[in-house]
C-alpha cells in the first residue's frame, strides 16, 4: 500500500477522531468546571457547619475513602483508565488526543 492510499483510507477516521476529540474535550472542560464549582460550594457549606459546631468531620477518613475511588488496588488512576477507554483505537486515538487537547483548551 502506498502513502497516498494509506492517507486516503485513514483520512476520514483521523478527521472524525479529531472532531470527536475536540467535542469531548470542550464538554469535559465545561463539566469539570461545574464539578469544581459544586465541590467548592459543598466544601464551603461543610466548613461553615463545622465552624458553627453543627457537625464534625474526620478529614483523614474522608481522604482515605476518596483515595479508593481515584486509584484501584494496582495503583492505576481513574484518569488513566478513562483515557484508555477514550483512546483505544490508535489512528482514531491519536487524532482524538489532539482534538481533545484543542477542545479542552477552548472550553
Would you give an account of this structure?
This protein has 107 residues and is mainly alpha-helical. 81% of the residues lie in helices and 0% in strands. The protein contains four helices and no strands. Helix 1 crosses helix 4. It is elongated. It starts with a helix and ends with a helix. The model has no long low-confidence stretch (mean pLDDT 80).
| Uncertain parts | none
Helix fraction, binned, reads over 70%
Encode the helix/strand succession as letters: HHHH
General form: elongated
Q: What is the first-to-last residue Cα distance?
A: 39 Å
Rg, rounded, reads 21 Å
User: Could you tell me the mean pLDDT?
Assistant: 80
What percent of residues are in strands?
Answer: under 5%
Q: Biggest β-sheet: count, sense, barrel?
A: none
The assigned structural class equals mainly alpha
- Put simply, the count of helices is 4
Strands, total number = 0
Amino acid at each position: 500500500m502506498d502513502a497516498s492510499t494509506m492517507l486516503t483510507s485513514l483520512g476520514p477516521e483521523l478527521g472524525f477522531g479529531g472532531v470527536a476529540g475536540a467535542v469531548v474535550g470542550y464538554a469535559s472542560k465545561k463539566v469539570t468546571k461545574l464539578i469544581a464549582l459544586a465541590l467548592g460550594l459543598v466544601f464551603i457549606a461543610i466548613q461553615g457547619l463545622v465552624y458553627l459546631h453543627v457537625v464534625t468531620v474526620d478529614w483523614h477518613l474522608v481522604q482515605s475513602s476518596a483515595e479508593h475511588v481515584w486509584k484501584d488496588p494496582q495503583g492505576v488512576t481513574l484518569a488513566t483508565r478513562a483515557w484508555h477507554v477514550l483512546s483505544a483505537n490508535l489512528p482514531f486515538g491519536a487524532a482524538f488526543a489532539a482534538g481533545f487537547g484543542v477542545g479542552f483548551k477552548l472550553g
